[in-house]
Amino acid sequence: MREEESPETPWRPDGVTHPVAADTRPFAVDASSDPGLYELAPVALVCLDEPGCVLAANQATAHQLGRTVAYMCGRPFVTMVAQRDRRRLFSHLARVAGGEHCELDLTMEMVHGTELPVTLVSKPVFDRDGRFLCSSNAVLDVSRRQQAESTLRQAKERLDHIAHHDALTGLPNRYLFDDRLTRALARCRRHGWLGALVFVDIDRFKFFNDSYGHDVGDAVLIEAATRLAMSVREQDTVCRYSGDEFLVILENVTSRADVEAIVAKLRDEFARPLYGLTERPLQLTASFGATLFDKSVRDADAIIKQADMAMYEVKQDSRDGIGYFSRQLAAEGERRRLLEADLRIAASETSQLRLEFQPQVDARTRLACGCEALLRWDHPSQGLIQPGEFIGLAEHASLSGVLTRWVLREACLRARRWLDGGRDFGRVAVNVSPRDLAGSGLVESVDSALEASGLPPNRLEVEVTESSVMHHPLEARRALRELNARGVRIALDDFGTGYSSLRCLQDYCFDRIKIDRSFVAELGDGAGADAIVEAMVSMARSLGIEVVAEGVETPRQVRHLRRHGVNLMQGFLFSRPLADEAFAVFSSPGTAG
Ligand code: C2E
Ligand code: MG
Ligand code: MG
User: Fold this and answer.
1) Cβ contacts of 365-368, under 8 Å, gap ≥ 24
2) Quick check: 432 pLDDT over 70?
3) How far is it, in rounded angstroms, from Cα 314 to Cα 199?
4) Which domain, by its residues, includes 411?
5) Which of the four pLDDT bands, split at 50, 70 and 90, describes residue 18?
6) 285's torsion region: left (phi>0), alpha (psi -120 to 50) or beta?
7) Which of 279, 307, 325 is the last residue of a domain?
8) In this structure, what DSSP letter does residue 578 have?
9) Which of 70, 273, 325, 398 could form a disulfide with 291 if both were Cys (CB 3.0 to 4.6 A apart)?
């Protein structure tokens, strides 16, 4: 039988009928009240005597608490309250008996043990002599309000999470990271700890995205995030800083060796093949740049820059490596920064720029069959700066497009002048940067240079490197096809230093490959360069592609190359890069070689 159905008289612990409860209708103690009003009130009302027993309760109370009025009357109200709140109820009732009007949040225990959060609003009732008679209480159901508050709290937490986390990987985002780094630096200062910040940039991420689509790109980012997060300790922070860049804060490390061990582990984790996304496993690698900080460091931005600088060095170098920030690196970074600013001026004024032309020679006739335009920068205070130093800077500063436009125009104008002067120079080759291939401006720059100079398109050759093609495969294919359709020749520079795949040769309509000088330098020393060159030549020949050897410095190299069937050569043996006029003489029939 359910307890509320019990026909018993009002409950007393000692079995004695409560003197008031026995003859009390709801709220009969309040002489001025109309009992009907209490009965009909949609609010749960309950009247308690000084010890806290129920004197009267209306139907709304019974309904709300899932009990009958008969069950409640005479029972201590506390028995209907959750155990944990009982003590608080007693002190609340004592305050009311003392004359206070007060409220209490508590949890009612309903039939079958379910709970109901309520607010008890209590008011004391006194007789004419000022003696406490009972407390009059409204039992307000606050479950809906609490539910609404909890939903609101959850929504706020969710919004907060979204604002501070990256939607794709779930890692802390840049904003949360800034806060975490500032706190980490503060903790380092307080405890005298050593910490480290590691900048991680996925290698060739654009290649994954472009070649396999954005779904695979996203999956690569998620996997990268997971690998990083799984490889660090709980107190460390991994965040997605932007695009394919992640930052890791290592806190409370004991030594540089400690940091090196953790970063090495991160790198090893990263290098595990990634199965299941594409037909063949993907090889993920990243460039890691790390910097250490101690209690003396306050500037979070400076720390990020240091880690970025260290990472940039690795990227420039060979990628897939670890670099550490040092004072020397900072000095180089500063020099680069200043040089970059100067390069910006040079690129806009162009008076500091000039071209040299290195002949390409047919070793059988020793006559020039073409030339390569090589950019030179005459820095106002530092003198001649070689492209090896500033081309990378130009890429970094997004200046390569401007430079390429200038080089193309200048080379085409010169070549047109040689033609007009009756000198058959073959064709002029211009190097383009990876960024030129990625952007949309290359074809336009070529068109405008050809138009301004009136040079026939088949007199112009564009040199691209394998890595730049592989970094931007789709854009490269489109740009190179368009150039090819105009009759412009395409050469693959530094062949053998990158991916050197047959597929790449086949896909990109190359007219020429240029065997990198590192192979030429090793010809004849038995280290395998001969076999490699032979393979390159047969690969190119089978696809109808011409071969040029770069960096030829000795007659012995010429002999080896000719034995392998390579006749077109470029190198100091024939000529160093020359100024315009000198090349014009070189290229004139009868004077070559
Ligand atoms: P690259 O396109 O492979 O150009 C050949 C480089 O090898 C030139 O260096 C040339 O001077 C050097 N070289 C030629 N023959 C020999 C030789 O027999 N021995 C040795 N040791 N070196 C030889 P340079 O002019 O310093 O250019 C370096 C690189 O800078 C070029 O390599 C090219 O990638 C880049 N570059 C040059 N000019 C431009 C340009 O206008 N635009 C872009 N994007 N890159 C350029
Ligand atoms: Mg070149
Ligand atoms: Mg080259």
Assistant:
1) 365/592, 366/574, 366/592, 366/593, 367/589, 367/592, 367/593, 368/425, 368/426, 368/586, 368/587, 368/592
2) yes
3) 11
4) 351-586
5) very low
6) beta
7) 325
8) B
9) 325
Q: What pLDDT score was predicted for residue 328?
A: 85
Task: Indicate if 504 and 578 belong to the same structural domain.
Answer: yes
User: Ligand 1: distance of its center to the CA of 374 in Å?
Assistant: 6
Distance 397 CA to ligand 2 centre (A): 21
Q: How far is CA 256 from CA 194, 251, 298, 354, in A?
A: 9, 12, 19, 46
* Pair 550, 579 in one domain: yes
What pLDDT, in 10s, does the model give residues 319-366?
A: 778 999 988 888 888 888 899 999 999 999 889 999 999 999 999 988
Q: Residue 234 contacts by C-beta under 8 Å, 6 or more apart in sequence?
A: none
75 Cβ neighbours under 8 A, 6+ residues apart: 10, 11, 53, 54
Q: Residue whose CA is closest, atom 17 of ligand 1?
A: 551
The answer to whether residues 43 and 119 belong to one domain is yes
Q: Which residues line ion ligand 2, judged by CB < 5 Å? A: 431, 463, 493
Q: How far is CA 290 from CA 33, 431, 507, in A?
A: 79, 33, 39
Mutate which of 356, 357, 361, 374 for ligand 1? The one with the most ligand atoms within 8 Å of its CB, which is 374
Mean residue pLDDT across the chain: 88
Give CA–CA dist 362/568, Å, rounded.
5
What pLDDT score does 396 carry? Answer: 83
Which burial class, exposed, middle or buried, applies to 526 when counting CB atoms under 10 A from its CB (0-12, 13-18, 19+)?
exposed
In tens, the pLDDT along 565-588 reads 999 999 999 999 999 888 877 776
Per the structure, the count of domains in the chain is 3
pLDDT at res. 592: 39
Same domain? For 318 and 387 the reply is no
Distance 425 CA to ligand 3 centre (A): 19
Q: Calculate how far, in angstroms, residue 551's C-alpha sits from the geometric centre of ligand 1.
A: 9
Helix (H) or strand (E) run with residue 11 in it: none
Q: Each residue of 516-568: pLDDT tens digit?
A: 999 999 998 877 889 999 999 999 999 999 999 999 999 999 999 999 999 99
| Residues contacting residue 520 through CB under 8 Å, at least 6 positions apart | 529, 533, 549, 550, 551, 552, 553, 557, 561, 571
CATH code of the domain covering residue 233 = 3.30.70.270
- Tokens of residue 49, six digits: 């005597």
